[in-house]
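Hi everyone, sorry if this is the wrong subforum. Our group has a chain we'd like a structural model of before ordering constructs, and none of us has done structure prediction before. Sequence below.
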Amino acid sequence: MNKSDLIQKLAEEKKLSPEEAADIVNIFFNSMKEALKEGNRVEIRGFGSFKIKEYEGYVGRNPKTGEKVEVKPKKLPFFKVGKDLKDYLNS
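Answer:
Right subforum, don't worry. Here is the predicted structure as tokens:
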């Protein structure tokens, strides 16, 4: 399922126009992105949680040339599946 499928499913089930459904889905995802950007954890009970992991910079190596390369610090999203979802998928 992709974002367009989700919008279509919401529109059909709640009898909304595709534009209204798209607005709702976009608000939902934009709110999650903003919360993560601010350093907050996003938890959806029964589904899972999202948080940002910060990684320090380090000196790496280009595998092709062997040349040393500086890798800058970065932030990456991390998802942890919730118990209810895990149980649902394994039942």
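For your construct planning: The longest strand covers residues 48-55. Strands lie at 42-44, 48-55, 58-61, 68-71, 74-81.
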